[in-house]
From TrEMBL, chain A:
Sequence ranges assigned to domain RagB/SusD in this UniProt record: 306-454
Main subcellular localisation: membrane
InterPro entries in alphabetical order: SusD-like_N (IPR033985), SusD_RagB_dom (IPR012944), TPR-like_helical_dom_sf (IPR011990)
Organism: Marivirga atlantica
The name this protein goes by in its record: RagB/SusD family nutrient uptake outer membrane protein
Keyword tags: Cell outer membrane, Membrane, Signal
GO CC terms in record: cell outer membrane
Signal peptide: none
Domain SusD-like N-terminal residue range list: 96-222
TrEMBL record, chain B:
Residues covered by the TonB-dependent receptor plug domain: 113-219
Subcellular compartments: Cell outer membrane
Cited PROSITE patterns: TONB_DEPENDENT_REC_3 (PS52016)
Organism: Marivirga atlantica
Membership in a protein family: Belongs to the TonB-dependent receptor family.
Membrane topology according to the record: Multi-pass membrane protein
A single GO cellular-component term on record: cell outer membrane
Protein name in UniProt: TonB-dependent receptor
């Protein structure tokens, strides 16, 4: 009996050893893992939408703040001195490689690239409707080109990643190669394979289009200084019949005109948190205090306001929210904690005001998350065509496009904003630059306009812009450190 | 010749016959229960003769009638009896309480204290109920050398931060808690301190390696009370306490504030005399907030079974409204003997807690404009909350906060044990512990100010459950051979699985705002305003373990342990880890050459080496996941189209952290055990620390996303001492003790081959400024920023010293650390340390007749806190009174800058680093035991009343509420952003035993 007991014990003891490896396999619940997705036609759609998701990422806009605007003469940092301190270094160009916004921006661009690469690499392997499959890939290539185009304009030579899990010893690739081998071919593929805006089903409005791809190509060719191609692509958009100017300037970016005739490409959003379709882009700019619409980061600059006033340009009122103004029945009182009017030696240098282009009506701060960020407007396409035509020696073609924009701006008031008639290339060049300054203010375009036209040191020099340095932003120091300096820094940032 | 031999033989026989004529017999029994005691050693004094009792306690021996017999057995008091010609002597041996209590609980068993080779500290039950806190760990503050207990908050029911022997890892540094053999996944908030018999803190690898992959942060073993032999014991205790804030933080009053603001914004306040002056700290804190603590227990034991049953009730209001905590606990421990060799039992702890989640109004109150009244009258003449500038109206924040967490928790251990052969036993146990936690939060619709409003009422509910199941099989062998060799060995196999799941839901626009409507179904049903989320995770561990403890002649001690763990948290390649340890002990004072004096009673030398591990990372860090919820908005009627893509990024090559630890120790008892000294030196190096690091940005995992790697190495070395003195002078008995621990912490490596200049930046103040760093060659999480050298007094100085572009006269002169004539980010340097150099505790007690007085002190030195609440300035906020000494013109202040709303002077600098060294009178207790003749009338065996003060006095230079704040994440350093204050408490109590 005793030995029986002992035997049972020993048996029990060893029985329990017969565990199998399955006991220790505990993969994540509710999520699948890399390598198993996308596998089906529905996965392909999900993965494509997942790449679009990056467009609403707060950090995609220069690390969350309207830094590209704050660095220009159109915008100052906004809010109070102690608040949004992280943006102050962009007002006076004292930012360095340790800047966290730059780090977030860089990382988020690569995140968008990675999500696009997932579609580009994996969706073609899926057995499904071929036309749709090609469209998904074209959408992803459009997005990848967009992300790379920002990356290369912001940081210059960049690490070229065309796979899901890149090796960890990569170095920077010449920007020219990225333009030629990735960005341009991706967009050409998109032009080839994407539907026009009108060819999409109503429920797909907001997906990238052939016209959007051409407009983006025009923008990038201007940046690259290839004016014939810039003119070609912008005119193709103009002649496509897909787009026109909104009759009223303020309808070019407000809620009613979302997805409207002037919208070549915008990022649709819903008035909820990011996970539910929201985009914090407008909230970041939004009115501080009463009504509470946001943080008030980025404030229209006083000199710009004065210039617009001197021109009696009606676009000023549609672009800037002044204190005391009543918008959609809501009185704008602003933030108690910030100074309403800042004077230096008795002269006004700054007033509390806000970017009206991101204004959303409604009763809650949350509404601002539903603002659709306009990335390319038809007015921009017209001005790009004007600029390219002027550079290509066709001033009259240029004037035609330019004056379409001015005509809309003057809103029937013949006393203001007369048609431009100058045909001298240099004069017209500056007039087109001015028109972009007035028409496209606070839309994240001026900084790169000034850089690509070599005008940045002239106009932004007094603010702190240093030629030979600030045309590019610093590669995040963490990237340099982690790569053990395989990844190098841009000039004059070390 | 033959004759001679014969004569000698006869002589010898004769002498034998003379001295050992009589056969003496008898039985040895236990004085308490009368059980026979087998194996009792019987020696004839001054001879080599002896005998032992048989299984029935009987013995027989031949002795002379005038001989003396010595009866001895382990665990009993030795007795010496003169024979006096008797032929039968029955002896009752008294249990030697002192020797028996000298058994120390170690992992998977117990060991005699004299055989112990590891570094283990024991804390007895009476120490654990000295502090009026729900969590027993609070009572360990200053009681165990090497154990640092601090608080992230004084919020009722919050768990303290516990660090054993420094910061060993860069992730979770919490020790492992084991309650009655059950390895817990988290803390012990469910446990009533009154139910605890003893706490053993396992410090070195010899003690912790039996817990293998979970031992490296130290192990806290808790043994709960069991029934004791004798009559039924009934205990009742009641304690009533009142707590108050120990000190207020000095902030500006209305006039000071307005004067200050006028300096940088002239003309803001024109008539300082009419401005209100509101002290928001006075308005939010309640004075003498009550704590109630009632406990009752019944216990008993018989031959065949024993039990301990208790109920406890604890309720703490908290000094902030709506921060109360209530706990009901039940404890049942019972054991049954079936036959001679079979035993089984159940240990069960149940707890139900309700916690009101405090509104975060501490910082709000500190920031509030003192010139803004909290109430105003609306157009109808009703008193309503007014807008309070700074951050929000703290009183409104309290009013609109409604959040409660309820939690039910059970920890149980069901076992059966079978003894066989000689010294073997096999124990199998099923251990289940589980919890169910619910949080309900409701915010009504309200408007106080544009920045303090809730546009629609909202409700959120979150449910989470957790369970853990352990199946454990342990074979033990305990045997002593001839009093020379003693072997204590265990071997076992255990499996463990855990599962946790949560479900959260929320809705808005409730039909009504009364509590009956605080349900999701009362929301407006708008699917866009409703949210649901649900997820779960599982883990599993499979282990083999063994330990041998061998003692030779009570002098030479040897312990070896082994554990092999396999964990689901690691990929198939690195799934198993092996954790060995070895230790030697030498009871020096047992040696024959050791001088037998009264001065030295006992000296033991110990040395140990071992490897322990850490696996405290989330369940799925090895996997790169694809997540849904990454939708995009499309359509003429904009709708969210579902999307999926990369979610978290994993590392399939993850493996354990490995900590190599050695320890040298001395235990000494001197002067008749009055003086006890324990000293330890240790060195532990953790390698392959599991740390989340930001990989190269181009990997595309996204901003703020990190991947876990095994990269860093951290060393902790230190010296610990623990001494106590106990004596009696006449009727007065008294005791003193002093303990402390010196620690040096250093990061040895931070990702070699991963990034040459790896720096882990932590300590986010909430405005993007990050003040803590972890780099090679320094302690974990030190503070990093500018060094203030003075204040620019004039333009000459401004030109003389390098400055930041935004700086002017009256601003700080930051030191140009690298002396390159330019002040920039490169000039930031080490400005503070968040790991104390020395933590200590000391105390004493005096007893005279029934009166006892005891005092415990504890503290720390060589540690800093970053005063983040003062450094954060989003807009104009009230200022701490430090700024009253500001620079107001040349020659005024060289330490405090000019008045500004915010900006450059608030950059991370040593101006905000404060010395958090302190000495605290932790408890002061005066007690009285009623005399026996009085209490016997009510049939009580003990009646004690006491008054006690907790945290009565803290000596410190720190300006915040409490210098002993801790941090959950060591990479953040210790930053004070306005914590719920640790309070001072006054208690009265009654304890009755029947």
């Amino acid at each position: 009996m005793r030995y029986l007991n002992i035997s049972i014990c020993i048996l029990l003891f060893f029985l329990t050893f017969s565990c199998n490896e399955d006991f220790l396999e505990k993969p994540p619940l509710s999520q699948t893992t890399e390598g198993l997705f996308p596998a089906t036609a529905n996965d392909a759609l999900l993965a494509t939408n997942g790449a679009y998701n990056s467009l609403r990422q707060w950090n995609l806009n220069a690390g969350g703040f309207p830094l590209l605007d704050i660095m220009t003469d159109q915008v100052t940092k906004g809010s109070s001195a102690g608040d949004g301190a992280a943006t102050a270094v962009f007002e006076d160009f004292t930012f360095d490689a340790f800047d966290p916004a730059m780090e977030r921006w860089y990382a988020t661009l690569y995140q968008g690239i990675r999500k696009s690469n997932l579609v580009i690499l994996e969706v073609p392997k899926i057995t499904m409707d071929e036309e749709l499959r090609t469209r998904y890939v074209a959408e992803a290539r459009f997005l990848r080109a967009y992300f790379y185009s920002i990356l290369v304009r912001a940081f210059g030579d960049a690490v070229l990643v065309l796979e899901i899990n890149p090796p960890l010893d990569l170095t920077r690739t010449d920007a020219q190669i990225i333009w030629e081998d990735v960005i341009i071919p991706d967009l050409e593929f998109a032009v080839e394979n994407l539907p026009e805006k009108s060819d999409y089903a109503a429920e797909d409005l907001g997906r990238v289009t052939r016209g959007g791809a051409k407009a983006l190509l025009a923008r990038l060719y201007l940046y690259l200084g290839d004016f014939p191609l810039a003119q070609q692509y912008s005119e193709e958009v103009i002649n496509s019949g897909q787009y026109s100017l909104e009759p009223d300037f303020e309808d070019a970016f407000n809620v009613e005109s979302e997805g409207g005739v002037e919208s070549v490409w915008e990022v649709p959003a819903l008035p909820f948190g990011f996970g539910d379709g929201g985009n914090q882009y407008a909230n970041t700019w939004g009115v501080r205090g009463t009504p509470n619409r946001g943080w008030g980061f980025g404030r229209p600059a006083y000199p710009w306001i004065i210039e617009m006033q001197n021109n009696e340009d009606p676009r000023l009122d549609a672009s800037v929210i002044f204190l005391g103004e009543v918008l959609d029945g809501i009185e704008i009182l602003g933030d108690d904690a910030t100074t309403d009017t800042t004077r230096v030696d008795g002269q006004i240098v700054e007033i509390e005001c806000y970017n009206q282009k991101v204004w959303t009506p409604g009763t809650t701060a949350q509404e601002s998350f539903g603002h659709n960020q306009r990335i390319i407007r038809y007015a921009d396409v017209l001005l790009m065509a004007a600029e390219a035509a002027n550079e290509n020696g066709s001033p009259n073609v240029a004037l035609n496009y330019l004056n379409q924009v001015r005509a809309r701006a003057r809103a029937g008031n013949t006393d203001i904003l007369p048609d431009i008639t100058a045909t001298d290339q240099a004069t017209l060049r500056l007039l087109i630059e001015d028109e972009r300054n007035y028409e496209l203010a606070f839309e994240g375009l001026r900084y790169w306009d000034l850089v690509r036209t070599d005008r940045a040191s002239t106009i932004l020099g007094p603010l702190g812009f240093v030629e030979g340095k600030h045309e590019l932003f610093p590669i995040p120091q963490s990237e340099i450190d982690i790569s053990q300096r395989r990844i190098t820094q841009n000039p004059n940032y070390e | 010749m033959k004759k001679l031999y014969l004569t000698i033989l006869i002589f010898l026989l004769g002498s034998y016959m003379i001295t050992a004529q009589d056969l003496l017999t008898g039985t040895v029994t236990d004085a308490e229960n009368g059980d026979p005691i087998p194996g009792v050693s019987i020696k004839v004094v001054n001879t080599t003769n002896g005998a032992t009792t048989d299984l029935d306690g009987n013995y027989s021996i031949r002795v002379g009638s005038d001989a003396q017999l010595q009866f001895s057995f382990i665990g009993y008091k030795t007795q010496t009896i003169p024979v006096n010609g008797r032929s039968q002597i029955n002896i009752q041996l008294q249990v030697d309480v002192e020797t028996l209590s000298e058994v120390v609980v170690v992992g998977y068993g117990t060991v005699r204290k004299s055989d112990l080779t590891g570094s283990v500290a024991s804390v007895k039950s009476e120490e654990l109920v000295k502090v009026p806190a729900a969590n027993p760990v609070q009572a360990l503050q200053g009681k165990v050398s090497g154990l640092q207990v601090s608080n992230t908050s004084g919020d009722p029911g919050s768990e303290p931060v516990v660090r054993l022997r420094g910061i060993g890892t860069l992730n979770d540094n919490n020790p492992l808690y084991v309650v009655d053999g059950v390895i817990l996944n988290g803390g012990i908030n469910f446990l009533n301190p009154n139910d605890i018999e003893s706490v053993e803190v396992l410090k070195d690898a010899s003690a912790t390696a039996i817990y293998g992959s979970r031992g490296s942060n130290g192990v806290i073993l808790i043994t709960t009370k069991q029934g004791e032999k004798g009559t039924v014991r009934v205990n009742f205790s009641a304690e009533q306490s009142w707590e108050s804030i120990a000190n207020k933080i000095g902030v500006m009053n209305g006039r000071e504030f307005a004067t200050y603001v006028n300096e940088f914004a002239p003309g803001t306040y024109n008539n300082l005399d009419v401005l209100p002056n509101v002290d928001y700290q006075d308005l939010i804190f309640e004075d003498l907030a009550p704590i109630n603590n009632y406990n009752a227990s019944v216990s008993s034991a018989s031959e065949k079974s024993d039990y301990y049953f208790s109920l406890g009730y604890f309720n703490q209001d908290g000094i902030l409204p709506k921060s109360d905590f209530e706990r009901i606990t039940a404890k049942l421990n019972n054991n049954y003997k079936v036959g001679k060799s079979f035993k089984m039992g159940l240990n069960l702890s149940l707890a139900s807690t309700t916690k009101s989640n405090a509104p975060g109004v501490i910082t709000t109150a500190l920031r509030a404009f003192p010139i803004d009244e909290p109430f105003t009258t609306d157009s109808l003449g009703n008193e309503v909350f007014a807008e309070v500038r700074g951050s929000a109206n703290p009183l409104a924040a309290i009013e609109y906060q409604n959040s409660k967490t309820t939690r039910q928790e059970a920890v149980s251990n069901l076992y059966a044990e079978f003894s066989f052969l000689d010294g073997f036993s096999f124990k199998t146990s099923f251990q289940f512990n589980g919890s169910l936690s619910k949080t309900k939060s409701f915010t009504p619709e309200f408007f106080v100010a544009p920045l303090q409003q809730n546009e629609t009422s909202d409700i959120s509910q979150s449910y989470s459950d957790f369970y853990q199941l352990i199946f454990e099989n342990i074979l033990s062998y305990n045997k002593e051979f001839n009093g020379i060799h003693r072997i204590n060995a265990v071997a076992g196999y255990t499996t463990q699985q855990t599962r946790s799941e949560f479900l959260n839901g929320s809705a808005q626009n409730l039909l009504r705002e009364e509590e009956e409507f605080w349900y999701i179904n009362a929301g407006d049903g708008d699917p866009l305003l409703q949210n649901v989320s649900n997820n779960a995770s599982e883990t599993a561990i499979v282990s083999i373990l063994a330990r041998v403890n061998y003692s030779l002649m009570d002098k030479y001690l040897f312990t070896a342990t082994y554990r092999r763990d396999g964990s689901s948290k690691f990929g198939a390649n690195n799934r198993y880890g092996v954790f060995p340890s070895f230790a030697l002990g030498w009871n020096l004072s047992e040696e024959s050459f050791f001088p037998q004096t009264n001065f030295v009673e006992n000296i033991k030398l110990r040395a140990s080496w071992g490897i322990v591990g850490n696996e405290k990372i989330p369940a799925n860090n090895q996997y790169s996941t694809i997540g849904t919820g990454q939708g995009a908005v499309f359509g003429e009627n904009e709708t969210l189209n579902p999307g999926a893509s990369f979610a978290s990024a994993g590392n399939p090559n993850l493996q354990w952290e490995e900590q190599v630890q050695y320890d040298f120790g001395i235990n000494g008892e001197f002067l008749n055990n009055r003086l006890v000294i324990e000293l330890d030196y240790y060195n532990k190096t953790t390698n392959d620390i599991l740390v989340n690091l930001t990989p190269l940005g181009y990997t595309g995992i996204g901003a703020f996303q990190q991947i876990r790697y095994n990269v860093a190495n951290v060393e902790n070395k230190g010296f610990e001492f623990n001494t106590s003195w106990k004596d009696q002078i006449g009727n007065v008995n008294y005791s003193l003790n002093v303990l402390g621990s010196f620690i040096k912490n250093e990061v040895l490596d931070l990702g070699e081959g991963f990034g040459a200049d790896s720096v882990i930046i932590g300590g986010d103040l909430g405005n993007g400024q990050r003040v803590a760093r972890t780099v090679v060659g320094f302690p974990v999480g030190f503070f990093y920023g500018y060094e203030v050298q003075g204040v620019f007094q004039n333009s000459e100085q401004l030109n003389q010293f390098p400055s930041l572009s935004a700086q002017g006269i009256g601003d700080f002169i930051y030191r140009d650390v690298n002396n390159d004539g330019v002040l920039n980010a490169e000039d930031r340097t080490v400005i503070g340390n968040s790991i104390p150099d020395l933590t200590f505790g000391f105390g004493g007690s005096v007893g005279w007749k029934g009166i006892s007085l005891s005092a415990d002190f504890q503290g720390q030195t060589g540690v800093d806190v970053y005063n983040g609440k003062q450094a954060l300035r989003f807009s104009i906020l009230n200022y701490e009174d430090k700024f009253l000494d500001r620079w107001t013109g040349e020659g005024t202040s060289d330490t405090d800058p000019r008045a500004t709303q915010g900006g450059v002077n608030f950059s991370p600098s040593d101006y905000f680093v404060e010395d958090a060294s302190y000495l605290r009178l932790r408890t002061l207790t005066l007690g009285y035991n009623f005399p026996q003749n009085l209490i016997s009338k009510i049939k009580a065996s003990q009646v004690r009343i006491y008054v006690r003060g907790t945290n009565l006095i803290t000596w410190t230079k720190y300006t915040g509420y409490s210098p002993d704040i801790g941090t959950g994440n060591p990479l953040d350093g210790v930053i004070d952003l306005g914590r719920y204050p640790v309070t001072k408490t006054y208690s009265v109590g009654l304890n009755v035993n029947f």
